[in-house]
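Much of what follows relies on a compact textual record of a protein's fold. A complete example follows; check for yourself that the lines match position by position.
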Amino acid sequence: MSKVKVGVIGTGSLGLRHVQGYLAASGVEFVGIYDINPETQNRVCADCGVHGFASAAELVEAAEAVSVVVPATCHYEVAQPVVAAGRHLLVEKPLTNNLAQAEELVALATAKNLVMAVGHLEQFNPVLSLLNRVPGAPRFLRAERFAPYPPQRRPLKPRGCEVSVVLDLMIHDLDVVLSLVDSEVIEVQATGQTLISDSEDIAWARLVFANGCVAEVSASRVNPVPARQLFVAKDHAHFALGYATQQGTLTQWDTDGTRTEELTTERRNPLYDELQDFVDCVATNRTPRVPGTQGLRALALAERVLAAIRNPRS
């Protein structure tokens, strides 16, 4: 099998991790990078020993598949030429910050029979597999995702703060909830607060599904310490899972009482697994674990949450 020619556009802190991941992946011929900031590009080229292109267009010309790791407000303008040129695409979440543009990208990739993946990283976190320890559908979920406010990086806004915390952090958990609950969201309640940024820095949402399941999702980028946790209740069982630790607990109730056990799984690097999945899908022309349609669904729900925050019922 020939190697897939891969490039990365955008090499900030997360883009650098994409470069490192591709260099460690199998089946990859890494063609190089492009970053709008020459100093950043030169530093990554020197540190990683990779080639730097003079423009995004030159990189796209040389590659078969491209990771787009730029600010969310630039996803469409950078990703659209990649897909239009017939190149396979992995774009970081959110797919875009605009639902109509996201729909256009997905439709274009489909029409060109391209692999399109969206960087909803938690889908590759092995801790989610622990939920299979108990059969049955979730009845209640609570997701919490908290982070400190990002450092300044003038003239750009702090990382992720070009969009609401709903699109920056909460969308991870909206995607996970949608993947776990096989039902339609029929009601969205939400509230949020803007403290430092131009948009919400704290947000909370309550989702009601047609099958009766309820999910509560909260996110903050002004928390003193980071935390990423998922709580899932099934019939006679409750999971408490940590994304960062990739560990958790399972509590079960039966006629003999309550018992709690510690759960562990093989530790993995979710980003490296995500990149390897993308490369393998390009090589074999199969659908990635998080295709564009899934990213589109998560974005549509995120926009419903934002609408509920900004246009509360009187």
Summary: The chain has two domains: 4-121+270-291, 123-267+302-310. The two ends are 60 Å apart (CA to CA).
